[in-house]
Amino acid sequence: MPLLELNNVQVEYLEVGTHNNFPNGWLHHKILPFAIFTQALEGSYQVVIGGHTETIAKGEIAFVPSNTPVTFIHHAAKSGTMAARWLHLRATLHGSADLMDLLTIPGKLGHKSARFLGVSIARVLSLTDGTADSGLIPTLRQMELCYGILRELCEHFPIRKTGSSTLLRVSRFRPVFDYVRAHLGESITVEQMARAASLSPSRFFPLFKRAMQLSPMAYVQKARLARARELLQDDRSTIAHVAEAVGFMNQFHFSRIFKTHFGMAPRVYRRRFALSPPSS
Questions:
Q1: Is residue 166 domain-resident?
Q2: Are 60 and 75 in contact (CB under 8 A)?
């Protein structure tokens, strides 16, 4: 397989955090649009996905794929403390294929597999704990650590049997992805996407759907919502402006579709994930 161009691998979301005093027995239900890696530092987790429960002991890491309903049950150590650190990550190829979905990452990373990722999370935390200087160098260090995490994940966990063929099929439609990203605020048709792929619409539609596992217009909506998530992290834009920027007819239609996909309204999403505290 030829080398990928750098801008084809995109880190769309990266968040790290830590907490040193979770309530014993606390149940936390969530579903997030990015992968979750969470490491027990003191005490343990029970992680419930689809009726299956996995116990995460001290030092181990739980992995939860994006858009997966999960319940975390927190158990304190004998000292009475339950502490953890976590990484939320979404990285894509061509802004479409989720890299975490292509890898054979187990639901529980034992101590050996968890060691490298825990160290990386701690290093990113050290750049975001409020004591590091702001500016270009810390930002570049964070980017370096983030892509280092992706490299280590790919080295530790092989691509699924279907992953290589997915990469090849998806790469074929790079001109389509580029076209969609450049015209998100405009009306986009299947005919325009087919033209970008140098195919007739009748030939383009089944090939694209087979490669992406969704229709061309469903992909456009997915790309619009992904861009909207990025814009919502900046509280300087109104919800109406975000809706217009990503091609929705109006704010109300955008809010309804966004809540259907992510389980929360755009304003709620902004309050939870804004890069700076909302101004209003």
A1: no
A2: no
Residue 24's domain comprises: 6-156
Q: Tell me, what amino acid is at 104?
A: T
Q: Mean pLDDT lowest for which of 80-84, 89-93, 133-137, 170-174?
A: 133-137
User: Residues 16, 131: one domain?
Assistant: yes
The overall average pLDDT reported for the chain is 85
Residues 137 and 177 reside in one and the same domain = no
Q: What is the mean pLDDT of the segment spanning 7-17?
A: 79
Q: How far apart are CA 277 and CA 280, in angstroms?
A: 9
Contact criterion met (CB below 8 Å) for 65 and 99 = no
Calpha distance 90→121 (Å, rounded): 15
* Global pTM value: 0.70
Same domain, 63 and 182: no
Quote the Cα angle for 234-132-138, to 5°. Answer: 65
